[in-house]
Amino acid sequence: MPNAIDIHQVTKTFGEGATMVTALEKVSLTIRDGEFVVFLGPSGCGKSTLLRMIAGLSAVSEGGISVGGRPVEGRDPSVGMVFQSYTSFPWLSVAENIGFGLDLAKAGKARRDEKVATMLEKVSLGKFAGSYPSQLSGGMQQRVAIARALAVDPRILLMDEPFGALDALTRVEMQTLLLDLCAEDRKTVVFVTHDIDEAMLLADRIVVFSPHPGRIAEIIDVDIPHPRSIEQTEREDFTHLRHRLRKLLFAMAKRAA
Amino acid sequence: MSALNDTAPAAGLAAARTAAARPKRQRYFAIRKPLAARTTTSLSVAFFLLILAAWALISGTGLVSDFFLPQPMQVLATAWAMYAHNGFLWDIAVSIYRVLVGFCLAAAIAVPLGLLMGSVQFFRSLLEPCLAFTRYMPATAFIPLLVLWLGIDDTQKFSVIFVGTFFTLCLMVMVSTLSVPIALIEAAIMLGARPGQLIFKVILPAAKPSIFNDLRIVLGWAWTYIVIAEIVAASSGVGYVILNASRFMDTATIFVGILSIGCIGLISDLLFNLGARYLFPYLQRARS
Description:
Radius of gyration of chain A: 19 Å
Number of helices of chain A: 8
Oligomer: heterodimer
Structural class of chain A: alpha/beta
Strand order of the largest sheet of chain A: 6-7-8-3-9-10
Number of strands of chain A: 10
Low-confidence stretches of chain B: none
C-alpha cells in the first residue's frame, strides 16, 4: 500500500522580486495510511499553507506532493477538508448540507438519504436535520462541516484549525467527538492547530513547524495508546510532553521577537 | 462595620432606582440601541404628518402662492379627478410597462454577466474597465441620440431605461458575487464541485440575496429615467402628464405625478421585501 501522503522538498513562495515571501522551505514528510498527524506551530509557520497544497487548493512553488501515490493536481476525490471558518451553505438545511457532496456526484436519492441519516446520527445532529446553519451554534456548525466532509467517504481528512473559533468547553467536546469518529473508522487525518493540548490529545505524530521561513523543527511521536480521553492529559507522560512542546514553541517566539 | 453593611445596599438600591428613572432622552437617543416596534412606527408616521403639516401651514397661510405650492387639499382633489376621471391610471400603467420591459431586459443580461465577472477573473478583466467607463456617461445624455436612432416610440423608452440601469447593475452584481466568501467556494471544491456546479450551486445561491437587493435599488433609478424619457418625447405616461401640466402651470397635477411615483416606489420596495422573505427564509430565521 502506498503512503497516504508524500511531501517531497516542497517550497512555497508568495509574491515576486523584492516583495517575495517564502512561506515554506524544502519541507519533506511522509504520512502513513491511517495515521493521525498534527501540524503544530505558531502563526506564519506555513502549516496551513502546506495543508492547502495537500488539498490541491494551492500549488507548490517547488518540489512535489503525492496523495495515495498520485501527484496532487487539484482536488483529489480521496481527500476531504474541514475549514476554520464556518463554511456551511446558509441556504441549505443541515441535512442538505451534509448531502451536498453526494448530490454533486449524483449519488441518487436513496443512497444520499441513507448516508445523511448515518452521518446525522454520528455527529448527534438528528434533531437539527431540517434547521438552517444560522440557527446552530459554532460547535454544531463544525459538526455539520465534519459530517459533510465524511459523507463522501474520503480516505484522507484535512482539518485546518477546525476548532479554533470555538470556546474551550465546546472545543474539548469536539475533540472527543473526533476521537470517537476516528476510532470507528480509521482515516488518515492531518490536523492543523496551534493548541498544544489539542495536538497531544489527538495526534499519533506531532509535526512542529518553525516560522520565517516555514520549516519542520521537530517530529514527535505520541506513544499514548488509544482510546484517549481528556482525563489522560493530566497524566505524567502528557505533562512531560506538554512541557517539551511549550519550550519548543516559546523558543521560536523568542527568536522571532 | 455593620452599619456600613446596612446602609451600603440601601444606597446602591437608591442609585439603581434613579438609573431606572433616567430621563427618556437617554432612552430614545442611545447609540445603536433598538426601540420598541410601536415607537418606531409612531416616529415614522409622525414625521410624515409633520411634513404634511408644514406643507399645509406654508401654503395655507399664503406665505407662498398656491401657484408655486398648491395646498394639500388641492392636490388631493386633483388626484381624485386624475385617477377617477382623467385616466391617470392608464398613464401609470404605461409607465410601469415601459420601466418593467427596459429593466427586465437590462437585468436579464446584467445578472448573468455580473455573475460571470464576479466568478471568473478573465471576464472581469475583459469587461470591468469598459463598464466602469460607460457607467459614468449619464444615461440622460444618450436620450437625443436614442431619439435619433430609435425614434420616439416605446423602443426609445426601453432603451433609455436599459442604458440607465444596465451598466451599474452589471457592476453591482459583480461586487455582490465577489463578496461570496472564498471559504464557501473552497469547501465546495473539496466536496467535488466542478466549475459549472460552483457557479450554479454555490456562488449564485450564496450571492442571490444581495443580487436581489441590487435589483431593488436599481429599479428605483429606472423611475427617474422613464420620467425623463417621457418628458422628452411621449404622448402618454407619468412623465408626459407632468410635462403637460407644467405647460399649463398646473402645479397640483405635477405634485400628484411626483407623489404617485413615490407611492409606486414604496409599493415596489414592499413587493421586493415580501419576495425576499419568501425566497430567502433562512435569512429571516437568522435575524430572529
